[in-house]
Amino acid sequence: MSRPIFWLAILGITLSAAAAAGEGAAAEYVGGTLAVIEAGTDGRLSVADPVSLVFETRRSALRIPYERVNLLEYGQQVDRRLLEAILISPMLILSKKRAHFLAIGYQTEDGRQEAVLLKVDKKAIRAVLVSLEARTGLRVNYMDSEARKAGKG
């Protein structure tokens, strides 16, 4: 392993621990194959556990062992702030609102393929992506060049 990659991995793990310190990153379950969590459920995403990714809601907790993850995808939804520009200031038309989405595919113990789509807080997405790459050994698939820029900083 080359030195820059090694130090990048160490930095990612450190940042992930900081992002997930205690509470984890704010996230929303957008959808997927799980019937136990409703779409639109808010929770906390933590990558601090050395064995599993943890998504906790008020009612339940989803633990996905890193070794069972087989897909990581990151994408963005970019919207112009048209309503705010009309109501507040035309200058807001120049700004963009971005939503950051993380898709995680994994296999359960009984061999079923499952998928989870989370909307992750913009302040934590980079640390989460780097941590997931380090812990799973997989590369994140970026959906477009804008997502690649945002995910890698």
Give a quick rundown of the structure.
28% of the residues lie in helices and 38% in strands. By secondary structure, the chain is an alpha+beta fold. The chain has one domain: Roll (PH-domain like), CATH 2.30.29.
Could you explain the architecture of this structure?
This protein is an alpha+beta fold and 153 residues long. The chain has one domain (3-152): PH-domain like (Roll), CATH 2.30.29. 28% of the residues lie in helices and 38% in strands. The protein has an eight-stranded mixed beta sheet. A hairpin with an 8-residue loop joins β1 (25-32) and β2.
* Largest sheet report: 8 strands, mixed
Oligomer status? single chain
**Shape category:** globular
Structural class: alpha+beta
Q: How many discrete structural domains?
A: 1
Global Rg:
16 Å
Mean pLDDT: 81
**How does CATH name the architecture?**
Roll
Order of helices and strands: HEEEEEHEEHEH
Defining key terms:
153 residues; alpha+beta; PH-domain like; eight-stranded mixed sheet; 4 helices; 8 strands
Topology readout:
Elements: H1 3-19, E1 25-32, E2 41-46, E3 52-56, E4 61-65, E5 69-80, H2 82-87, E6 96-107, E7 113-120, H3 125-136, E8 141-142, H4 145-152
Parallel strand pairs: 5-8
Antiparallel strand pairs: 1-2, 1-7, 2-3, 3-4, 5-6, 6-7
Helix pairs in contact: 1-3
